[in-house]
Design brief:
With about 375 residues, this protein is an alpha/beta fold. Helix content is about 45%, strand content about 15%. The chain has helices spanning about 25-40, 50-55, 60-70, 75-85, 95-115, 125-135, 170-180, 200-205, 230-235, 250-255, 270-280, 290-295, 310-320, 330-340, 345-355, 360-370, and strands spanning about 15-20, 45-50, 115-120, 140-145, 160-165, 180-185, 215-220, 240-245, 265, 280-285, 300-305, 325. The protein starts with 14 loop residues before the first strand and ends in a 5-residue tail after the last helix.
Length: about 375
């Protein structure tokens, strides 16, 4: 699908449908940021959570199952990932039931809203929009914003016109899987992470000694622990370090970690920009939203024992781009964080690489798509 041609003008007010899913918060958060940018450009938007479109309690049950598999049955999730996400397949055949459960309500919304552009930020959402295209229900251009550093077969559908990716290797992978060009937009994060934040007050509340180092340990919105316990206790034993664990909505994880001396465990945090400005390094296990925000904020990232499935693939992709150290044991973790605060050149290069990922405004690229004559 060529960009920059056709009859429509990008300065016209267009109706844009955004479809995502609350499987964790990252995919939906990216959709909200895209919606904010598009509205600021004067467009009319409608953001839908595919979980809410599924019949009955199916969507919520699917979200719970996804979290349970990743956290409690990682080997089973890895098996599912390899056979359903990675294996060759006809478009949507292995995600047929979850997708089709949302199509009736989604079709009604499309008929009422009549979008000029539809975009997705979650794999099953991409499949749902592609399926509506093949049925003839959705006739406007469709874009998939691939929010991960790696691409799998659930992200792509022949009914979609364009994939927008956060890195060049991801775009090359998408092109190889679809046979059509992809574009690079860089990660999509909120503006607060793209400008300097003042973390002084937050840091003073976290540590009493101004010379102490703060390691921010993330577990995602669902609080998927992974190796968070091991990372936190290892850094708490390291002189001069204070581990701060973000437990998301997992109250049990927070309660468990608070019993470890020297560990600070936080529930859901709203002002992540200030918290990142107060930290010296991010220790991550899923390469999700927090990792991308850290890249924008200039906070170096270490990936410790990434979660199974997409987490491992994304960690490999991030490491290949020089954006993280991928470590699995306590000694390697401590050595990695010490190096990122002790070697100024290494730290500066890591920060430079992270900030260089933000190559374009995804909203501007979407307006290019609006300038294309619909198929």
């Amino acid at each position: 699908m060529p960009l920059g041609s056709g009859a429509a003008s990008s300065d016209e007010v267009c109706r844009i449908l955004l479809l995502s899913a609350a499987m964790g918060s990252g995919h939906l958060q990216i959709a909200r940021e895209l919606e904010r940018r598009l509205r600021a450009r004067g467009h009319l938007t409608l953001l839908l959570d595919q979980v809410d479109l599924m019949l009955g309690p199916t969507g919520r049950w699917l979200g719970w199952l996804n979290s349970w598999l990743v956290d409690r049955r990682p080997r089973l999730y890895q098996w599912i990932y390899e056979r359903f996400f990675l294996a060759p397949q006809r478009a949507g055949e292995r995600a047929g039931i979850p997708v089709r459960l949302a199509l009736t309500r989604l079709s009604r919304v499309v008929e009422e809203f009549q979008p000029d552009l539809a975009l997705s930020t979650y794999p099953l959402s991409a499949l749902a929009l592609g399926e509506l295209r093949q049925r003839g229900t959705l006739r406007c251009p469709i874009v998939t914003v691939v929010t991960t550093f790696s691409v799998n077969n659930l992200w792509v559908h022949p009914g979609v016109d364009l994939e927008m990716c956060i890195s060049e290797p991801a775009a090359w992978d998408a092109e190889a899987r679809t046979g059509r060009p992809a574009v690079v937009c860089g990660p999509v994060v909120r503006p607060a992470f793209l400008r300097p934040a003042d973390g002084t007050g937050t840091r003073q509340r976290l540590v009493s000694d101004p010379d102490d180092r703060v390691a921010l340990i993330t577990t995602g919105s669902m609080g998927v622990a992974g190796g968070a316990d091991v990372a936190a206790t290892a850094l708490a034993r390291t002189p001069g370090w204070t581990p701060v664990v973000l437990c998301g909505h997992n109250e049990q994880l927070a309660d468990r970690l608070r019993r470890h001396p020297g560990v600070i465990a936080l529930d859901w945090v709203d002002d992540m920009a200030a918290l990142m400005a107060a930290a010296d390094v991010l220790v991550d296990n899923n390469c999700g939203m927090s990792a991308k925000e850290a890249l924008a904020a200039g906070l170096p990232v270490v990936t410790f024992r990434p979660i199974s499935g997409h987490g491992r693939d994304d960690a490999e992709a991030m490491a290949g781009l020089g954006l993280t150290d991928q470590v699995y044991d306590e000694d390697s973790l401590v050595a990695a964080v010490q190096r990122l605060v002790g070697d100024r050149d290494v730290r500066a290069e890591r920060i430079r690489r992270g900030k260089s990922m933000f190559v374009a405004d995804a909203a501007a690229l979407l307006e290019d798509v609006l300038a294309v004559e619909p198929p």
